[in-house]
Here is the input.
Amino acid sequence: MFPKPHRLPSSHIRAVFEKGKRIHTPDFQFIVLKSAADVSRFAVFVPARIDKRATVRNRSKRLVREAIRRLLPEVAGGWDVVVVVKRDLSAMKQSQALEQLKAILAQAKVLGG
Here is the structure.
């Protein structure tokens, strides 16, 4: 789980979906939106179509959350980010997830803090 200041409140998620810039990769869809908050906030979604088993979806969420948690010192403040997982990540290693997320966040210009 993200530290409390870095959790995107559910009341703001809809605005990110509606107004945010989308970045697609084979594994993820990132939706980023500049915000007035001092810190960047994140939310992770794994749709049920990925796998019907909650344990598989939860592992994917844990993998993504841990990678983002490790990148938090490098993340610039003032961004709201929603990560949507697009495929089963059960075979992915933590280091692979970290590399992919770092590249995507750099592409979105969210890194640099």
Observations:
- The longest helix spans residues 54-71.
- The chain has a mean pLDDT of 93.
- The radius of gyration is 13 Å.
- DSSP finds three helices and four strands in the chain.
